[in-house]
């Protein structure tokens, strides 16, 4: 009996930390001391927003839009959080990039009143989406219509939850269906380079190809 | 009742509402505010209370009773919390407390969770019987009169948590402070789908031609909404594109400057026959809905703003919005995706021209905006969030909950 894949999804509720920054100097100080949950929210959870903004994390967005330090925001935006398995490593990388900027450029101006950076953290609620897939064909149909929040939970959030850099989809396909090559192909999709809908398209494409192969090799 | 939102609200939000409804089935949820009608809080509670009951939560809505002196005091407190200089004497504070004490004798304050809306009923916490008490602050506390704010926030220390609409509205306190933005109801008279006939009726009522591009701003006649800046932007657009401008708003009875600003706007409009200044009576929800649906481009060119839900209202109708980069507007307008953020009349004019000259972009951003509102600013998301906060309060010391 194949263990079905149970699709779940998550939502976040923001909580104020009471901390804010009006300058790059203050932003750096706070990045060094805020909780891991806060760093997680401003970097990894940015992908929940669907890449609709210019940069790829809240820090880069604020530095680019409010401090208007385009060079630094490019550098911060280029940090791929999924390269790091620990928040502490990501935090260190962020601090190093900002420090290097301080070493080479004049101090940026403060932001205008009303445009401060507010550090928040989140509580996360995970719940079943009511969809289960017992085989690859069902899995493909589910991928086509499940909420974006479900793809976020299994494809992005799982990488940190599982601690191995793997996502829930490729893990199930490998461990339960024994399809190693397909799992490898899914793991090859770069989470940093796509929005959630882009990930959905890639998953559909790769899985559909596999389902077609299965169907065509069936004996009549 | 909650089923009416199927196919409108995100499926995940409805699923979680049902899940949390099962968890809290038969338990009691009490909301207290200071008015049954008028204002955004009452408007959303009228819709939210039946939804909560529908999912099995024993929900009540109580209203604080006060006299004119009490409301004068709370109006001053409200203004001071939003940054206006106001003097609140000890006598006034005592009276504020006394009215709350009297109400506590008449109101049934027993509930598993009590949500106190805004500052008027804040002192009721002193008469708590049981349950979790949460203060829901709908107003902008980002730049308050410090003395008044500190006095109010002393009451907060006894609450389990507070909820603010935006991170910059929150104050440094020792209790948990959640951030929950306000929402619109897609089924209310202001936001429901309208037929072409209904839209045409409104246009005919105001003698607005249906066949020319319409630029619309819906807001009170208040300098912070920059109606004069909107007319300047319209004039810049008009040099290149045929269009009409509609400035629609209700007279603000509690704003002594309203009439002065309205006169300034009329004078600045110089009897331009293509500028329609509409003074709408209160409860003109259907007309506002129709104007938003008839508009080609919607502006909310505020210089200072609370949350600015009119932006979400217009986006829900598939209209791209050009908004001032202030208050809650940047939370609703993702620049270049659901509309444009601007800082000047020139910026508003340029972006309006872009829309008028590029119907494909206009349609695409309008559609993006509607989806953005669907995922972030509908009443079902707010119900979901309130229940999630309740769940988090009862399951302390954790940040991830599997339901």
Order of helices and strands of chain A: EHHHHHEHHHHH
Distance between the termini of chain B: 23 Å
Low-pLDDT stretches of chain B are none
Q: What series of H and E elements makes up the topology of chain B?
A: HEHEHHEEHEEHEHEHEHEHEHEHHHE
| Percent range for β-strand residues of chain A | 15-25%
How far the N terminus sits from the C terminus of chain A, by CA atoms, comes to: 24 Å
Give an account of the 3D structure:
- The complex is a heterodimer of chains A (220) and B (403).
- Chain A is α+β, with helices and mostly antiparallel strands and 220 residues long.
- Chain A has ten helices and two strands.
- The longest helix of chain A has 21 residues, at 196-216.
- The model of chain A has no long low-confidence stretch (mean pLDDT 92).
- The mean pLDDT of chain B is 93.
- Chain B is built from 14 helices and 13 strands.
- Chain B has two domains: 2-183 and 378-394, 3-Layer(aba) Sandwich (Rossmann fold), CATH 3.40.50.2000; 196-376, Glycogen Phosphorylase B (Rossmann fold, 3-Layer(aba) Sandwich), CATH 3.40.50.
- Chain B is α/β, with parallel strands linked by helices and 403 residues long.
- Chain B has helices at 11-23, 40-54, 68-81, 90-106, 146-156, 196-205, 227-238, 258-269, 285-294, 310-316, 329-332, 345-357, 359-376, 379-394, and strands spanning 28-33, 58-63, 113-117, 132-136, 161-164, 176-179, 214-218, 244-249, 275-279, 297-300, 321-324, 339-342, 400-402.
- Strand 2 (117-133) of chain A pairs parallel with strand 13 of chain B.
A few lines on this structure:
The complex is a heterodimer of chains A (220) and B (403). Chain A is α+β, with helices and mostly antiparallel strands.
Keyphrases for this structure?
heterodimer, A: 220 residues, alpha+beta, 2 domains, two-stranded antiparallel sheet, 2 strands, elongated, B: 403 residues, alpha/beta, Rossmann fold, six-stranded parallel beta sheet, 14 helices, globular
């Amino acid at each position: 009996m194949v263990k079905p894949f149970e699709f779940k999804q998550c939502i976040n509720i923001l909580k104020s930390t009471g901390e804010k920054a009006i300058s790059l100097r203050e932003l750096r100080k706070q990045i060094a001391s805020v909780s891991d949950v806060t760093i997680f929210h401003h970097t990894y959870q940015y992908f929940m927003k669907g890449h609709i903004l210019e940069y790829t994390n809240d820090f880069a967005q604020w530095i680019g839009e409010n401090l208007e330090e385009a060079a630094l925001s490019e550098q911060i935006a280029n940090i791929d959080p999924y390269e790091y398995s620990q928040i502490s490593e990501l935090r260190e990388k962020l601090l190093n990039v900002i420090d290097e900027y301080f070493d080479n450029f004049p101090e940026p101006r403060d932001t205008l009143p009303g445009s401060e950076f507010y550090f928040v953290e989140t509580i996360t609620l995970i719940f079943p989406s009511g969809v289960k897939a017992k085989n690859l064909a069902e899995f493909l149909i589910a991928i086509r219509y499940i909420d974006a929040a479900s793809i976020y939970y299994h494809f992005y959030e799982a990488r940190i939850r599982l601690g191995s850099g793997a996502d829930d989809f490729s893990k199930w396909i490998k461990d339960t269906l024994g399809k190693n090559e397909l799992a490898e192909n899914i793991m090859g999709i770069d989470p940093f380079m796509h929005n959630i809908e882009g990930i959905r398209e890639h998953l559909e494409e790769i899985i559909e190809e596999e389902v077609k192969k299965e169907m065509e090799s069936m004996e009549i | 009742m909650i089923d009416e939102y199927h196919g409108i609200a995100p499926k995940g939000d409805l699923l979680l509402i049902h899940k949390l409804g099962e968890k809290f089935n038969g338990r009691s949820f009490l909301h207290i505010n200071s008015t049954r009608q008028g204002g955004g809080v009452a408007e959303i509670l009228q819709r939210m209370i039946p939804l909560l009951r529908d999912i099995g939560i024993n929900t009540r809505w109580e209203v604080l009773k006060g006299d004119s002196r009490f409301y004068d005091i709370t109006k001053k407190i409200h203004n001071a919390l939003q940054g206006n200089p106001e003097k609140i004497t000890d006598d006034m504070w005592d009276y504020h407390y006394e009215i709350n004490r009297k109400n506590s004798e008449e109101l049934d304050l027993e509930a598993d969770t009590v949500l106190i809306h805004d500052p008027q009923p804040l002192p009721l916490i002193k008469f708590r019987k049981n349950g979790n008490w949460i203060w829901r602050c709908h107003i902008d506390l980002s730049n308050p009169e410090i003395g008044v704010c500190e006095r109010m926030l002393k009451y907060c220390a006894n609450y389990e948590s507070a909820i603010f609409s935006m991170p910059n509205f929150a104050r440094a306190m020792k209790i948990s402070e959640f951030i929950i933005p306000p929402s619109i109801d897609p089924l209310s008279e202001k936001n429901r789908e309208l037929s072409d006939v209904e839209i045409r009726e409104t246009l005919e009522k105001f003698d607005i031609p249906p066949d020319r591009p319409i630029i619309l701003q819906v807001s009170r006649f208040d300098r912070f909404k920059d109606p004069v800046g909107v007319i300047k932007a319209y004039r810049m657009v008009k040099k290149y594109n045929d269009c009409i401008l509609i400035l629609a708003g209700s007279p603000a009875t509690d704003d002594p400057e309203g009439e002065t600003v309205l006169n300034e706007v009329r004078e600045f409009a110089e009897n331009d026959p293509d500028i329609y200044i509409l003074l709408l009576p209160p409860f003109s929800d259907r007309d506002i809905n129709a104007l938003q649906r008839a508009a080609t481009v919607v502006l909310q060119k505020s210089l200072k703003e609370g949350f600015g839900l009119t932006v979400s209202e217009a986006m829900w109708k598939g209209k791209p919005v050009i908004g001032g980069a202030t208050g809650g507007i940047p939370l609703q307008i993702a620049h270049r995706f659901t509309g444009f953020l601007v800082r000047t009349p020139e910026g508003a004019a340029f972006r309006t021209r872009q829309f008028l000259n590029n119907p494909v972009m206009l349609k695409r951003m309008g559609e993006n905006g509607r989806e953005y509102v669907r995922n972030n600013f509908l009443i079902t998301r707010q119900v979901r969030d309130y229940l999630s906060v309740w769940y988090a309060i009862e399951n302390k010391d954790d940040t991830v909950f599997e339901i």
